[in-house]
UniProtKB/TrEMBL annotation:
Classification via Pfam families: Glyco_hydro_1 (PF00232)
The protein's name: Family 1 glycosylhydrolase
Transmembrane segments: none
InterPro entries per UniProt: GH, Glyco_hydro_1, Glycosyl_Hydrolase_39
UniProt xrefs under SUPFAM superfamilies: (Trans)glycosidases
């Protein structure tokens, strides 16, 4: 049983479309992972990282209704299993196959849930999942800012995308648990805060600070705030759709609240409702405290990075600052169970949020695109070495019920899985009774 704090990195499988669906941005292709995947996994092992955020690209794996091309997933996941790396499988990262079109499609939740079920059956040793990455960001970039996928810019389009994305995530959790009852879901969601620039901006900032919670409220079956209830109802959500989420609140017991924090996550709000970047005013610890107070779930810092700048130490200093924030909230009682530098390698076109294809290399990785380690990679490797034995020793009573791939069929894991199966079955019966 894996009982230590989770140090992680990730290999991004973003696949949004731009240019009205004519251009797909495939980060795995642009960053060379299809060619260097074996080297990438070797780099993960060299760092001492035990956990990898990873998944096959949805658009080339889900090729039709209940039709799948598992070739790439079979090869890469077999290697992860052989290496003993624990994947947090990221099934949908900002885009869908062309035949689904976009997140306005009401068929998307069921199509995606069937895909998640098929994945869990095919790879039963996988325990950790992020079914849909950054649900809030995906909906707002696709359907409110007009940057990706459907490229719409209305409240109704945003609510439509969000309810479909959240429903797909919830259905996927149910289907995966039916296959692997001890599965754990780590929601990687952007942690945001909106600062009013002056008194006239207080109202729009309050609305934005309420709206930032919508994806997790729905996912965890938490009743939304009254103003947000009116907002979603006024923009196309039905009472039946809303109660679908409330009836499945027990799924939160299988969840770790993964939250992402970048220097761009805090915003200055003008009276007009427009925003500009604020930098790290509150910081990860304060904003995470707000999310934890709302959901009361274990926390994992699931994404952060900063570009290696002109001085060469900017990313190293940001790593230190984020880690200091993690230690602070952990020491004040928030159950933080993991930390992630995202991602393993530099990314392409992150400086335009993937909404333009400029082939711009963004030096935010632990390694560059030639797979040479960056200073932040050395610093992260040392951080893991320094802290990997210290954090578990702070409490020998608190453990994570997570198995390494090679432990899948061992007796303690089987006993835990059977207990989880009974609990899940009882909760499903409760859901069925409440829906009647």
């Amino acid at each position: 049983m894996f009982t230590t704090f989770m140090f992680a990195t990730g290999i991004e499988n973003s696949i949004p479309t731009i240019n009205n669906g004519r251009t797909r941005i495939d980060e795995m292709e642009k960053c060379g992972h299809y060619k260097y995947w074996r080297t990438d996994f070797e780099r993960v092992c060299e760092l001492g990282v035990q956990v990898l955020r990873y998944g096959p690209p949805l658009y080339s794996t889900l090729i039709g209704p209940r039709r799948y091309d598992w070739a790439f997933a079979d090869t890469t996941l077999a290697e992860l299993e052989r290496c003993g790396i624990i994947p947090i499988v990221d099934l949908c990262h900002f885009g869908v196959p062309d035949w689904i079109e976009n997140f306005q499609n009401p068929d998307f939740p069921e199509l995606f849930a069937s895909y998640a079920e098929a994945f869990a059956h095919r790879y039963p040793w996988v325990q950790l999942y992020t079914p849909i990455n950054e649900m809030f960001v995906c909906a707002i970039f696709s359907a409110y800012y007009g940057w990706w996928n459907e490229q719409l810019t209305t409240d109704r389009a945003f609510v439509t995308a969000l309810k479909h994305i959240a429903k797909a995530n919830v259905l996927a959790m149910e289907r995966i648990l039916a296959c692997r009852p001890d599965a754990i879901f780590i929601q990687s969601e952007s942690s945001e805060y909106f600062h009013a620039e002056n008194p006239a901006a207080i109202k729009p900032a309050e609305i934005m600070n309420a709206r930032r919670f919508l994806s997790l409220d729905l996912n965890y079956g938490r009743r939304v705030d009254s103003e947000m209830y009116e907002y979603v109802m006024d923009n196309g959500m039905t009472r039946e759709e809303y109660h679908f989420f409330l009836e499945r609140s027990s799924l939160r017991h299988h969840c770790i609240m993964g939250n992402d924090y970048y220097i761009t996550n805090e915003h200055r709000v003008k009276p007009s409702g427009t925003t500009t970047a604020a930098g790290d005013v509150f910081g990860y610890d304060e904003i995470t405290r707000q999310y934890y107070d709302r959901y009361r779930l274990p926390v994992m810092h699931t994404e952060t990075n900063l570009a290696q700048g002109a001085c060469g130490d900017e990313a190293v200093n940001w790593l230190w600052k984020q880690w200091a924030n993690v230690l602070r909230i952990r020491n004040t009682g928030v159950p933080v169970v993991g930390f992630t530098w995202y991602s393993l390698t530099d990314q392409m076109d992150w400086d335009s949020a993937l909404r333009e294809e400029n082939n711009s290399v963004c030096p935010v990785g632990l390694y560059d695109l030639q797979r040479n380690i960056r200073p932040v990679g050395d610093a992260y490797k040392q951080l893991i070495k320094d802290w990997c034995d210290v954090l578990p020793a702070q409490s020998v009573c608190l453990t994570l019920p997570i198995a390494y791939p090679y432990e899948y069929q061992e007796a303690p894991i089987l006993r835990h899985r059977e207990q989880a199966r009974r609990l899940f079955s009882n909760r499903q019966n409760d859901v069925q009774q409440s829906s009647h």
